[in-house]
From TrEMBL:
Belongs to the malic enzymes family. Its cofactor is Mg(2+); Mn(2+). Keywords: Metal-binding, Oxidoreductase. It comes from Marichromatium purpuratum 984. This is NADP-dependent malic enzyme. SUPFAM superfamilies: Aminoacid dehydrogenase-like, N-terminal domain (SSF53223), NAD(P)-binding Rossmann-fold domains (SSF51735). Its EC number is 1.1.1.40. The active site is at residues 48, 103. Residues 172-409 form the Malic enzyme NAD-binding domain.
């Protein structure tokens, strides 16, 4: 695809196929399976009454037994209020369901974690929080999805405090982890360091603010980061900032996206479609990194970016371009590790462990089954078109989950030992 027109044709064609995929042969993308035989009178008396009463008694005596006798330990809720669905915005609870089913498919396909997608009608954070707290006993973990800032911060914090199972806002931390891994790798290839890189983050919502926080924890310099929202650069002189934005405000005279892009080493777009112009790209520093991560339409089309610069490393959030920076590389494997050591939360140590594991995998030879999943892909090697592993890489489940599990144990939030079947 070399021009915007062919990009649009490609998307129109894909959209048609996507509708058919979702509709046929049966609506939706995920179902429920029975995991024990229930084919005889005897099995029915075990699965249901009278036998089922015995595990009930055991769980009543000790709630920990829920992990032994029910699917709780391998069941995650993908929960949203439909307020920031991909880059489509506030489409509401019902319309968000295909995305939440999609996340559930990814949990199952990549990490064998069972999921219920739950779309909640809740206008106020408190109503949402109460809903999640009430249904939490069912689950081993809570994956919050597509909840807009600033409510997402309040919601996640309250749930972490009130629940003893991992609560993880995927658009914040899942995205931040993949951005951090991809950016560290891309900067290294471009001969730059995170500490010195000047970074523009377009979008100061869930993904943008979490990405900045994690990059700062990993060594980025506060003075080198400019965050931008619909009003322009987030600077300390602005009177309209909520506390979350104020926490990342820059002391700068720059005011617009174009101002911020001038001389920048890296651009991270977590905002909306087509917001970056050719002039802005041209004004960036030599050998820039451009992550246009808005879904489904990126902040700048890869073809346009390449036309303007031949020295950039480019990534999008989509599956149909090289370098997919997308939280699919994180949440299935992070929850796998967290559930397997019964972690009470997913803390920053566990997040940084995931970043390091992703970075390391990218530098190693890619298994043939990964290449087979991508049409026309004959080889992959750490370089400008391969800065982050592919979602189909079987090593993600082994290595990212193990790194997260280890970090949970070392940071004291695990309630079960390192699993015997994990790598030593
Ligand atoms: N690739 C990936 O893995 C992921 C990608 N994303 C993408 O990131 C985007 C944001 O998601 P999320 O953070 O959850 O959403 P939020 O609603 O929490 O935040 C959106 C942010 O983008 C800003 N924004 C939106 N439109 C513009 C614009 N035209 N100009 C400047 N700023 C703009 C908003 O500004 P304001 O505060 O002024 O309203 C806000 O700060 C989506 O497109 C989503 O698809 C998100 C998660 C993962
Ligand atoms: C990928 C994702 O979670 C998003 O775009 O919201
Ligand atoms: Mg999302």
């Amino acid at each position: 695809m070399t021009d915007p027109e062919s990009f649009a044709h490609h998307d129109a064609d894909l959209n048609k196929q996507a509708l058919a995929y979702h509709a046929e042969p049966r609506p939706g993308k995920i179902g429920i399976e029975v995991t024990k035989s229930a084919s005889t009178q005897h099995e029915l008396s075990l699965a249901y009454t009278p036998g089922v009463a015995e595990p009930v008694r055991h769980i009543h005596d000790d709630p920990e037994n829920a992990y032994r006798y029910t699917n709780k330990g391998n069941l995650v809720a993908v929960i949203t209020d439909g307020s920031a669905v991909l880059g489509l915005g506030k489409v509401g609870a019902q319309a968000s369901k295909p995305v939440m089913e999609g996340k559930s498919v990814l949990f199952k396909r990549f990490a064998d974690i069972d999921c219920f997608d739950i779309e909640v009608e809740a206008r106020h954070p408190q109503a949402f929080i109460e809903t999640v707290v009430r249904i939490a006993p069912t689950f081993g973990g809570i994956n919050l999805e597509d909840i807009a800032a600033p409510h997402c911060f309040e919601i996640e914090q309250a749930l972490i405090e009130q629940l003893d199972i991992p609560v993880f806002h995927d658009d914040q931390h899942g995205t931040a982890i993949i951005i951090a891994a991809g950016l560290l790798n891309a900067l290294e290839l471009q001969g730059k360091s995170l500490a010195e890189a000047r970074i523009v983050v377009l979008g100061a919502g869930a993904a943008g603010i979490a990405a900045i926080r994690l990059l700062l924890a990993l060594g980025a310099h506060r003075d080198n980061i400019f965050a931008i929202d619909r009003q322009g650069v987030i600077h300390v002189g602005r009177q309209d900032l909520n506390p979350y934005k104020f926490g990342i405000a820059a002391d700068t005279e720059r005011r617009t996206l174009a101002d911020a892009m001038d001389g920048a080493d890296a651009f991270i777009g977590v905002s909306g479609p087509d917001l970056v112009t050719a002039d802005m790209l041209a004004s960036m520093a030599p050998r820039p990194v451009v992550f246009a991560l808005s879904n489904p339409v990126p902040e700048v089309r890869p073809a346009l970016a390449r036309e303007v610069r031949d020295d950039l490393i480019m990534a999008t959030g989509r599956s149909d371009y090289p370098n997919q920076i997308n939280n699919v590389l994180g949440f299935p494997f992070i929850f796998r590790g967290a559930l397997d050591v019964r972690a009470s939360r997913i803390n920053e140590n566990m997040q940084i462990a995931a970043v390091e594991a992703l970075r390391a995998i990218t530098r190693e030879p890619v298994p043939a089954e990964v290449l087979a999943a991508y049409e026309g892909l004959e080889s992959l090697e750490f370089g400008p078109d391969y800065i982050i592993p592919k979602p189909f890489d079987p090593r993600l489940r082994e290595r990212v989950s193990a790194a997260v599990a280890r970090a949970a144990i070392e940071s004291g939030v695990a309630r079960a030992p390192y699993p015997a079947h994990y790598p030593g």
